């Protein structure tokens, strides 16, 4: 039972570097996919973020951005180049991290699918890494509880890792719910043989949650063994759930195994909200030249549509998500690509091609 036919309001935060080029390209694709799926268009709400917001508001994440986002269904976040910010902004939490933490977006969802015609390391790869986003050794950057790192003397550095039962349970539910919409398999990745308490708790809570999903097959691997299994047979995995640092590393590996780190999309989600964000950065070296590849943010936008569709039981939205992905895939496969993929298309030209493909697909 859902709210199909509703008109969603989505924030759009262009960000730095190539952001103002690739984010509007992704909006065009989302619009085209919704149209093709017969769904109502979204209302886009542009919000200040990043370097431009520092100049205008004195901070990369102004209060008006946070209060407006709180009222929206989701948003598309462009990349940020916080290394280029003036102090004190450079040494603070990155602006993307600040938004993630403010809204407690605890699950980072990173699909790795070998596109037709892509040079995948393992052909047929079609998996999703669900990474816990607030705990583990990265807790200081993200979490409510965060203890972070410290140096008791100039020669000793210490980092804490935090794992909590509720923190693991919620991300495990995200993974198992997702598996039910895919191929009904979840793989838990941990290092419980060494990190007996922390990684052990992660594995055990995931196993407990699995009992609520008798229809979903579950197995678990140590992180080191998992890298080997992925290189040899990534095509056999469906949903992989893991803690923060392992997920950071594994999701880059899986994207590349699928042949596509450069075009990897991702979604950061809580139960209430989702934020589409490409896996790549602001690429300042090519900004302003009209050659940036918008595929990753397009695919992230498609993930946002799929998430909204699942959350609201809104099938046309999920159909639109599918059309957007298929449009990007077919366009690249047909030989229209930006220079990073060896093609000659500009950002706008690539977006034009994807929009045209989508209008022919449905
Ligand atoms: P961050 O610290 O923000 O993750 P990074 O150091 O990983 O940034 P990126 O900004 O992702 O760096 O850029 C890495 C390289 O990939 C650069 O040479 C950049 O031009 C290229 N690149 C990244 N994204 C794109 C894109 N969408 N289209 C084309 N090239 C890109
Ligand atoms: Mg990077």
Automatic annotation (TrEMBL):
<dbReference type="InterPro" id="IPR050501">
    <property type="entry name" value="ICDH/IPMDH"/>
</dbReference>
<keyword id="KW-0479">Metal-binding</keyword>
<keyword id="KW-0520">NAD</keyword>
<keyword id="KW-0560">Oxidoreductase</keyword>
<dbReference type="Pfam" id="PF00180">
    <property type="entry name" value="Iso_dh"/>
</dbReference>
<dbReference type="InterPro" id="IPR024084">
    <property type="entry name" value="IsoPropMal-DH-like_dom"/>
</dbReference>
<dbReference type="InterPro" id="IPR019818">
    <property type="entry name" value="IsoCit/isopropylmalate_DH_CS"/>
</dbReference>
<keyword id="KW-0464">Manganese</keyword>
<feature type="domain" description="Isopropylmalate dehydrogenase-like">
    <location>
        <begin position="9"/>
        <end position="354"/>
    </location>
</feature>
<dbReference type="GO" id="GO:0000287">
    <property type="term" value="F:magnesium ion binding"/>
</dbReference>
<dbReference type="GO" id="GO:0016616">
    <property type="term" value="F:oxidoreductase activity, acting on the CH-OH group of donors, NAD or NADP as acceptor"/>
</dbReference>
<dbReference type="GO" id="GO:0051287">
    <property type="term" value="F:NAD binding"/>
</dbReference>
<protein>
    <submittedName>
        <fullName>3-isopropylmalate dehydrogenase</fullName>
    </submittedName>
</protein>
